[in-house]
Amino acid sequence: MSLKEQNAALILIDFQKGFDQGEYLDKNRNNKDAEKNASIILNKWRELNLPVFHIIHSSINPNSRFRESRSGFEIKDEVKPIKGEPVIKKNVHSAFIGTDLKERLDKQGINSLVIIGMTTNHCVSTSTRMAGDFGFDTFLISDATATFDRIGINGEKFSAEIIHQTALANLNNDFAKVVDTKRLLELVE
Fold first, then answer.
1. Dist. CA 112–CA 8, nearest whole Å
2. Is 182 helix (H, G, I), strand (E, B) or coil?
3. Do the beta carbons of residue 56 and residue 98 sit within 8 Å?
4. pLDDT value of position 189
5. pLDDT tens across 34-59, in order?
6. pTM of the entire structure?
7. Is the model's pLDDT at 23 over the cut of 90?
8. Domain regions of the chain by residue span
9. Rg of the chain's alpha carbons, rounded to an integer?
10. Would you state the pLDDT for residue 82?
11. Residue 111: which of 85, 87, 140, 131 has the closest Cα?
12. 156 Cβ contact partners less than 8 Å away, ≥ 6 residues apart
């Protein structure tokens, strides 16, 4: 059964302008095409009239660029919501904690999720783990998510690509099926 027949919901996590500002400008990021791929996926979901949910981080830190009053809070132009697409605000890493996302999915009888967003090792990973634990048939799209370099506990630098790949490896087959955009588009038809 295709993802279209399953009425799979697309979950876009934290595609916000704050990731293109301030300290993030100096950080090395992998997968510069994540937004482009996300836009392709979003347009396909719209074309097929499948459910779409935009999740955005609303920081409680008054100095955060992801604070609702700051420009970094805004959703990136490539994946801006259109009328009728819900925008759900969260203030922790999981799209499910402190939000009504699970209730909305349950109310619509949705059992399959496709997750894309920022960043692979933070909010995307946390939300994917919870989706899997809730029993959703979950797909995480490897080239429609991205992350940044990280400094390890002993001061060593880990590249964004290593962080991205290890986060995907930790999620694959335990919490989600990790596929790329091309494969996803085959699965939705």
1. 5
2. helix
3. no
4. 87
5. 999 999 999 999 999 999 999 999 99
6. 0.97
7. no
8. 9-188
9. 16
10. 97
11. 131
12. none
